[in-house]
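Researcher: Quick sanity check before group meeting.
Model: Go ahead. Protein one:
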Amino acid sequence: MITLYGFGTGFGLPEISPFVTKTEVQLKMAGLVYRKEKAKPPASPKGQLPYIVDEAETIADSTFIRAHLEAKYGFDFDAPLSLQARAQAWAFERMIEHHIYWALVGARWVEGDNFAKGPAHFFDGAPAHLREKMREDAQFRVAENYLLSGLGRHAPDEDIDLAVRSLFALSVQLGDKPFMMGEAPCGMDATAFATLAGILTPFFESALRQRTEQFANLTTYVDRMMLLYYPEFAWAPVQQQAA
């Protein structure tokens, strides 16, 4: 059986990490039996989550996990797509993971109130005399990576404006379709859903969340995907939250 290692539930989400969510949804898409265990990033071969253990193999990084699942189990996540649509899906996935995701990181880790409410609690179990220093160091490292991503070099309103341009592109791509590339979900939907749900969770207040909620088709898309892949999770539909 496959074992998926992630952070677990939190922040009003079935899984804290968008990348773990991406892999979990793809496991569900493929109909593969798996179990889930909590882990910390240092346990992973690449120092990041998710990673999976599949019999004797350990695979880290969500993109390489997907490639492993496709190669070993013969499941094509993009089966309904033409060659051109596959290329477009890959390009959108890169945009989500290398642009929109970093806006999410900024909202969670760089904004002081959200950091204190959320990621700061990752260190609650650390020795009391080290706890605050570990929190400060972690926030500094993430803020530094946010800067290196490019978004962190701009003023807060400017980085949100840039992220919203990518969200607009996603909204246009989705249109009135049920899924990003058409009538059936594909691999890229796991990535889009995971990141958008991370932004839209009511746990955090942010300008990014407020701007994202203005794209009605994206909010209903997250609700649709949540119901499809996490029907047991108590997710309040975004449109109801805004009402």
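Researcher: Fine. The other one?
Model: Protein two, sequence then structure:
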Amino acid sequence: MQVIDFQETPVKKVRHQLLYLIYGDKDAYRHEAKFSILTALAHGNPATLPSIRILTDRPEDYRGWPVETLALSPQLLAEWQGNNGYIHRRKACAIAAGLTLAEKTLFVDTDTLFLCDPDLLFKQIQPGQYLMDSFEYHWDYVCKREDYLKLGTHLRAHGITPDNSFKLYNSGLCGVTDKDGALLAQAVGLIDEWTEGGFDIHTIEQIAISFALRNQAISETNKHVYHYFAEKRFFHTMQAHFFAQHGEAFNAQLVERCHDVPRTRPFPSAWRRLKIKWKLRNHSGPLHRIGRDLLYGSAAPEHPYYNLCRHHWWDSASREILRLDPKHQQQLFGQLEHWPRHLPEPSKAQDKPLIMAHLRKRITTSG
């Protein structure tokens, strides 16, 4: 590992770089970054592997890893956050600062797993050809939502209306070239404009980047990576167990062992999902979601890592129960000593007492 204070020391420009931003001392985010790097190494061809660079305020966390750490000072992190309190401005600033350090840069959110050789993605990055994680929606789809109304006012000032909408992309991955400084500068400027006086949505950074790229050719990366931003609880549990078992010191065996960890959440097979759907055919709304999550946790495939985190399905069910109005909650789930009579039972009889104990604990604790 090479530690560079890139504000003071010139950084060697490379052909390709994977660029990560991570700050703070939370174990889960450090595990995310390290596991993401392991998946890149596991799938990459040693002859074409990009440089891996981490912008971080804790370079010591990556000592011994095959990465360059670009040290961030508290002052720079504060500067990147800006004056409006929007923390994700730092991401756009990190991409802007990093793109000058390589001919092609692929910025990677830490909650990303590579499913193939990263070089396949770099081959798609060209002048005028960009990469983003995945298409999410058109502006005209969300523009009337209450939390988007303020942003809509700003966009109208730039000539954007529902009639001339643009595509909004998730920026979990962002592929750019060293010639794209003006585009990132525009995105940072838009973030400042759109967050002045407060903001209602947390994805302004990716909307700003999507807006800056709206007239460019964009390819999605989601066939080559898995960005698990909505399923962190499952992966945090699996990754914590992985590093508890094998340690965080880098070695070749760690790269091989990362293949043992599933690349998806513990999702039941298509056949089991179909059976669960049939069992719940007469249920709707919250009761359907509660039953589905309880049964999904029980029907998760047998796997050492899945066995550690299938309870997160039951956590989701408990949250749905707690959202019910008190009368309805008491009527349906007031007695959790036995399986609720209005819900189908799991196919694994041994899971019934486990699920009931889990629900009792969650619901009692919250009360």
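Researcher: One line on it for the slide.
Model: DSSP finds 16 helices and ten strands in the chain.
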